[in-house]
């Protein structure tokens, strides 16, 4: 019926008289939608490609699929209850908003905040892609052994019980850390520190990969891995550039600082690899790029360009040291199998970025973004506002401690709950054979690999007469020749 209500319609008053009301800024709205799409492309296809190509061939599909599933599952949870818990105006506690759906047209087509000149629908989409990439980053620590059914349960539970708490506390104007004055421009704490700590904690509960996989885990396609990394880098233009919620001066500053820090960090990591290992590693360069992007995120629109270079130097060296040196010396780092090293690239780099933000935050730039003044410690010392600078520096450290404690506790509780329902870890057969045992599919059907068609779960009904290129040789399994 033409007049039938759409699915999931939520009754409400739709007081909209024009498609472009007076408060709508078309430039801001277009930029926010573009920035959100760029962040979405970081996940799908960016991290799907990166994960699927940086792992062993037998784990390519499972790794990519974990990212794809999380992207879809987070969206449904987000519009169902997650957005209102994170950014809603009805407070449940000082840590959390009240769960509610973000599906009412009467709410989606009005301003989310008086200072934002685009509709709530744009805000919901923009914040969704941030929530989604956080779960996908967590997956990086669990590649190559987590039970896919357990992952399917983990995603909605962690989004609901952990991500929303961090997002509300830091990004909602009613959140207690927001009121206290902790700076997190675009997710150094909410996204990167959270995903690094949660991924590392979940990796402890899931357990390590097989000994064979831990000893040797070569990428199956380094060039494709670079394509995924490139999408991640360029997508960060929207990641940090969308932080001000407007196409304004601060967005431009955030974008240029983002790329300055990433490039510096990549070069520093590369120089350290060449100095101590004698070779330029492309995987090392990608790690340096990521740590630079993560480090600048809490500060992107709040520091000057020279500070972005210094932050890049720190992000290219300190995470390098923790990954390449300390990781082999500290037993907890050595024993917990963090497949993609998200603890180093996101937890360490995110914490570093938060601390350096407390040091380099420039008051005038902060006034472009925040309604209350923020003074980095450096400017507190030079402008004779030492108390303000020390306070901001201390608040940044306090925010780090809160996010760490939150994610260790909630991630542990979630993993313990899930393992009461399904095993957290794959079976020994699945760990041995990978994608074909888990999904019945394999990433590459290359003739020289001798694909065994009759043993594949999805190809068991192939008929030799239908596929004449397939032949059966005496004493050998059916192969494509």
From TrEMBL:
InterPro entries: Ammonium/urea_transptr, Ammonium_transpt, NH4_transpt_AmtB-like_dom. SUPFAM superfamilies: Ammonium transporter. It comes from the Eukaryota. It is found in: Cell membrane; Membrane. Keywords: Ammonia transport, Membrane, Transmembrane, Transmembrane helix, Transport. One of its GO terms (molecular function) is ammonium channel activity. It is a multi-pass membrane protein. Its main location: membrane. The keyword Cell wall biogenesis/degradation does not apply. The keyword Transmembrane helix applies. One of its GO terms (cellular component) is plasma membrane. Belongs to the ammonia transporter channel (TC 1.A.11.2) family. PANTHER family: AMMONIUM TRANSPORTER (PTHR43029:SF11), AMMONIUM TRANSPORTER MEP2 (PTHR43029). NCBIfam families: amt. This is Ammonium transporter. It comes from Thalictrum thalictroides (Rue-anemone).
């Amino acid at each position: 019926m033409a007049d039938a209500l759409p699915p999931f319609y939520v009754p409400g008053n739709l007081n909209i008289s024009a498609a472009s009301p007076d408060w709508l800024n078309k430039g801001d709205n277009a930029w926010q939608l573009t920035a959100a799409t760029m962040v979405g492309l970081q996940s799908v296809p960016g991290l799907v490609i990166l994960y699927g190509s940086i792992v062993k061939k037998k784990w390519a599909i499972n790794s990519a699929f974990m990212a794809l599933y999380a992207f879809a599952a987070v969206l449904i949870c987000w519009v169902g209850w997650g957005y209102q818990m994170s950014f809603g105006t009805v407070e449940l506690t000082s840590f959390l908003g009240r769960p509610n759906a973000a599906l009412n047209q009467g709410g989606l087509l009005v301003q989310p905040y008086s200072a934002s000149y685009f509709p709530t629908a744009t805000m919901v989409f923009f914040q969704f892609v941030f929530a989604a990439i956080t779960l996908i980053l967590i997956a990086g620590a669990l590649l190559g052994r987590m039970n896919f059914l357990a992952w399917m349960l983990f995603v909605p539970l962690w989004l609901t019980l952990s991500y929303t708490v961090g997002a509300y506390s830091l990004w909602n104007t009613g959140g207690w850390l927001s009121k206290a004055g902790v700076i997190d421009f675009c997710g150094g704490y909410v996204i990167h520190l959270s995903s690094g700590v949660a991924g590392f904690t979940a990796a402890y509960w899931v357990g390590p990969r097989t000994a064979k996989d831990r000893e040797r885990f070569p990428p199956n396609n380094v060039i494709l891995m670079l394509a995924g990394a490139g999408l991640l880098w360029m997508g960060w233009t929207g990641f940090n550039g969308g932080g001000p919620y407007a196409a304004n001066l601060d967005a431009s500053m955030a974008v240029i600082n983002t790329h300055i820090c990433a490039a510096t960090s990549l070069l520093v990591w590369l120089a350290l690899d060449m100095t101590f290992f004698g070779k330029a590693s492309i995987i090392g360069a990608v790690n340096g790029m990521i740590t630079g992007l993560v480090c600048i995120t809490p500060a992107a629109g709040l520091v000057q360009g020279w500070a972005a270079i210094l932050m890049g130097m720190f992000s290219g060296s300190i995470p390098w040291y923790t990954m390449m040196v300390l990781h082999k010396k500290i037993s907890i780092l050595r024993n917990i199998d963090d497949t993609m090293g998200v603890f180093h690239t996101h937890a360490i780099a995110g914490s570093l970025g938060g601390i350096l933000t407390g040091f380099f935050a420039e008051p005038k730039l902060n006034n472009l973004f925040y309604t209350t003044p923020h003074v980095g410690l450096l400017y507190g010392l030079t402008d004779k506002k030492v108390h303000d600078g020390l306070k901001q520096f201390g608040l940044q450290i306090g925010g780090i401690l809160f996010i760490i404690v939150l994610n260790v506790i909630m991630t542990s509780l979630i993993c313990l709950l899930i393992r009461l329902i399904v095993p957290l870890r794959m079976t020994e057969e699945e760990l041995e054979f990978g994608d074909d045992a888990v999904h019945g599919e394999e990433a590459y059907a290359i003739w020289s690999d001798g694909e065994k068609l009759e043993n594949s779960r999805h190809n068991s009904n192939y008929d030799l007469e239908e596929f004449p290129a397939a032949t059966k040789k005496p004493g050998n399994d059916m192969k494509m020749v």
